[in-house]
Structure formats: structure tokens, C-alpha cells
Backbone:
């Protein structure tokens, strides 16, 4: 994909270009790559053009920075700020380079009519939308030469090209999400599986977590939570050292270990993140070859390559032919395997081990598991099997098959954890202890035995879950 152009044809990008051409544009580009689907020709003016022209203007940038300080509790100040931004944007001159690129693309459609639509990076998400806040123009004629000056209806001359609704939030949200994806877009749920769509490929997967955070927390809550956690850490540290004898040798060596763990524990994520950066580089290379194979008619769709072994893919790449019947069979097998319930324990020899939790008293009817984070909590069970469906509210108890690092933002809103698989050192257990959440793991069939919305009690000290 060109890295410097302001304008791209639909044929020059796919769904991964979400941040460059917006939601609708990225989907049109993806559709144009599918054999048998006819997409009307067209092009997108990229976000690079907007970024360099609008946010690159010092006056507009200063106004946008000022707008970012406005909160929803003070809506009366939005209108004047939005009006100033609107006036500043409408007075900007389009650079010659951009005008030339647009005219070059328009020249291909002389004598036809076009639709002019927005394709924002923050619209068309599954649970949130800025769609409909920008004007749409249909049947716009393209004259000979691509462009021409035309008089504007006097009634429309007084109407702003941008509305207040289109300004606050949309730009700030797009920049914030874009910045996050620049850093962490290579991550996703189940990220060890290279076939899983990364957040940069499917930014809409972040929508539930973002909306949960907006709904469940107030501005500045992260600072308050940090200060509260720091105070709790200091209290527990002092308590341990006092019990050991504040000036004793044991207390001093323990304090050193505590401080070392606190200083370096977060670094455990660096190797995993480096691995995911490598995964993304490898996946992009694989998908480029997959797109070429689709164009050559060797495979039906790009994800077909994930149903081939590496040796098989190399052979298909060399011969430009594939055994499509084998691919279809493996797709069917995969769908069948997904419907199966995996055993809790399986040895390397394929032996399935079954057992029961013994040696402790639990309430009648309670579900037994492994105690991994102490404490007792009651609340509403929120049964979630997929991260992109994690619509939790403040105070819910998360019930899920398992978690991995991509689930960490969900822990901000919940007050307890129950998983079907896991142990003392697995991801959910470690994060639950870091967040001070009572947690029980290894609860067999928890997501089916616990109904979504049911009141439950979780005892993370003894290791059981009670249905209330």
C-alpha cells in the first residue's frame, strides 16, 4: 500500500486499513478483493490528508486541544468551541498536492455521477456509532476535467459544512483509539493463535471494553484507583515487616524482595509483546501471499491458507494451485471441533484424567474449584465466552472459560472472577491477585451451570462458588 499518498482507490487497501480510510472505506476495499462480488469503483481521501491539513494547522490544533478539556457535565461550552473550530477548518486552503490527487482520480469518472460520503475511524462500531453526523451527497456529477467551480445555493451558504455533533468526541476518540492501536494493535484475544484477528485488523473488538469503561468509571478514576492500590500495598508491606520485626535481618531482606518484585513484575509482559510484534509481521507476510493466491484463483478466500500446513502453503505458493477439497474438509473438521467440550486435564499421551475436589467443606450445592485469590464477594454473574461480547457493568463477577492478557482491561470493572480452567499461576489468577479480586478457577462447566445475571457468592479463600 502506498505510504505517502493522500488518495487511495478501493483496490489499493483492505480491512486492515481501518485507520487510514475509516470503517466504510476499509470494508469496501475488503469487498473489492472478493472474487464474484462487484463493488462500484471509487476512492478514499485518507486520514493522512485530514491529519496533515487540519490537525497540522497550529490554530486548529490549539482549538482541538482546548476542546479536549470539555466534559459532558459542561455541555454549554461545547457550542462556542465547536463554532470556532468549524470556522477555522472551513477557512483552510487545500494544498495543491491534495487537489491534484483528487482531480486525477475524479478524471477517471468524467460524465458519471458519484456519491460523496464520510468514512470515519470512529463510526460503524457494533456498540457505538458516530455515523450520520456528516452530510452525504448523492448523484454528484463529475464534469469533463474532473472538477469545476459551481455556484452554491444561497440558503446553503449559511449552513455550516460541519455541525457541532460532528466535532466533539469524534476527532478526539479517533486519535485516542489510533494511538492505542499504534502501540497495542498487534494484541487480541487468544493471540497465541496467529489466525485470530488482531485489534489493528478488527478495532471494533475494543468497543465493548471502551464502552464498559465509559459507563462504569468517572474521569480520573484511574488515578484514584492507583492511589488506592498504592495505599493498600503500603499498608500490607508495613504489616508484613512489622510482624517480622521492623529492624530485623529478615524484615530487611523481605523488604528488598518485595520492592524488587514490585519494580520488575510488569516487565514480564515485554517478551510476550515482542512475540506478538513478530506474529503480526509474519501474519502480514502470509496475508499478502494469500491475497495473491486469491487473485490467481488458487484459493477462494485469504483465510484458506490457515487450513494448510506450512509445507503445503509453500507448495501452493510455488505451483499456484491448491487442493480445495482438502481445505473445505479441514474447515468442516474445525467447525466440528469447536463444538466439542475439551477435557480439563489431558496428558501428553492423550490420557484424559477425571477427578473431584476433596478434603474441604463447601456449602451444599456450591461449585468447587481452586482458590487462587483470597476474599469473599457476592454479585451478579456475567457469563462471557468471548472478549468482544464482554459487556460487563461495575460490580459484576466475571464467569468465563479462561482469560489471557487481552482480557486485562475487563478486570477494571469486575469485583470477582470464576473460570473453568486454570491454576494458581495462570493469567486470570495472577491478575485477580494484583487487582485484589476474589477468584476461583478450575470450576468445571461454570459457564453452563451459572446463569448469566444470577446472584452468586465467590469464596476465593476456600475455593467455591455458591448460587444464591
Residues:
Amino acid at each position: 500500500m502506498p505510504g505517502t499518498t493522500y488518495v487511495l482507490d478501493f483496490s489499493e487497501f483492505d480491512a486492515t486499513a481501518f485507520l487510514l480510510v475509516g470503517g466504510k472505506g476499509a470494508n469496501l476495499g475488503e469487498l473489492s478483493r472478493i472474487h464474484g462480488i462487484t463493488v462500484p469503483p471509487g476512492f478514499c481521501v485518507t486520514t493522512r490528508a485530514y491529519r496533515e491539513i487540519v490537525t497540522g494547522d497550529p490554530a486548529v490544533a490549539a482549538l482541538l486541544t482546548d476542546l479536549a478539556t470539555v466534559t459532558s457535565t459542561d455541555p454549554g461550552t461545547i457550542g462556542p468551541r465547536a463554532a470556532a473550530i468549524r470556522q477555522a477548518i472551513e477557512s483552510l486552503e487545500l494544498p495543491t498536492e491534495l487537489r491534484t490527487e483528487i482531480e486525477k482520480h475524479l478524471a477517471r469518472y468524467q460524465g458519471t455521477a458519484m456519491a460523496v460520503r464520510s468514512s470515519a475511524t470512529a463510526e460503524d462500531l457494533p456498540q457505538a456509532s458516530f455515523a450520520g453526523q456528516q452530510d452525504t451527497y448523492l448523484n454528484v456529477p463529475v464534469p469533463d476535467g474532473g472538477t469545476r467551480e459551481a455556484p452554491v445555493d444561497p440558503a446553503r451558504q449559511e449552513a455550516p459544512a460541519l455541525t457541532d455533533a460532528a466535532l466533539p468526541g469524534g476527532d478526539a476518540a479517533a486519535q485516542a483509539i489510533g494511538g492505542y492501536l499504534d502501540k497495542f494493535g498487534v494484541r487480541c484475544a487468544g493471540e497465541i493463535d496467529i489466525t485470530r484477528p488482531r485489534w489493528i485488523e478488527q478495532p471494533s473488538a475494543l468497543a465493548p471494553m471502551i464502552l464498559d469503561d465509559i459507563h462504569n468509571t468517572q474521569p480520573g478514576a484511574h488515578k484514584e484507583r492507583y492511589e488506592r492500590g498504592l495505599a493498600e500495598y503500603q499498608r500490607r508491606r508495613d504489616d508484613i515487616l512489622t510482624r517480622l520485626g521492623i529492624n530485623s535481618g529478615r524484615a530487611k531482606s523481605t523488604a528488598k524482595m518485595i520492592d524488587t518484585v514490585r519494580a520488575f513484575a510488569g516487565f514480564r509482559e515485554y517478551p510476550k509483546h515482542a512475540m506478538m510484534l513478530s506474529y503480526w509481521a509474519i501474519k502480514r507476510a502470509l496475508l499478502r501471499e494469500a491475497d495473491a493466491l486469491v487473485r490467481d484463483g488458487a484459493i477462494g478466500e485469504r483465510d484458506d491458507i490457515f487450513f494448510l500446513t506450512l509445507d503445503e502453503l509453500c507448495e501452493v505458493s510455488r505451483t499456484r494451485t491448491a487442493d480445495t477439497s482438502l481445505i473445505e474438509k479441514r474447515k468442516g473438521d474445525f467447525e466440528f471441533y469447536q463444538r466439542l467440550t475439551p477435557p480439563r486435564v489431558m496428558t501428553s499421551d492423550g490420557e484424559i484424567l477425571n477427578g473431584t475436589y476433596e478434603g474441604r467443606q463447601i456449602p451444599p450445592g456450591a461449585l468447587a474449584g481452586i482458590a487462587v485469590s483470597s476474599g469473599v464477594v457476592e454479585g451478579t454473574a456475567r457469563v462471557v465466552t468471548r472478549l468482544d461480547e464482554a459487556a460487563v457493568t461495575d460490580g459484576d463477577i466475571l464467569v468465563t472459560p479462561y482469560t489471557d492478557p487481552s482480557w486485562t482491561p475487563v478486570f477494571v470493572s469486575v469485583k470477582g472472577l470464576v473460570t473453568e480452567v486454570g491454576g494458581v499461576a495462570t493469567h486470570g489468577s495472577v491478575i485477580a491477585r494484583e487487582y485484589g479480586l476474589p477468584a476461583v478457577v478450575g470450576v468445571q462447566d461454570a459457564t453452563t451451570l451459572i446463569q448469566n445475571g444470577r446472584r452468586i457468592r465467590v469464596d476465593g479463600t476456600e475455593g467455591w462458588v455458591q448460587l444464591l
User: Anything to note?
Assistant: The mean pLDDT is 83.
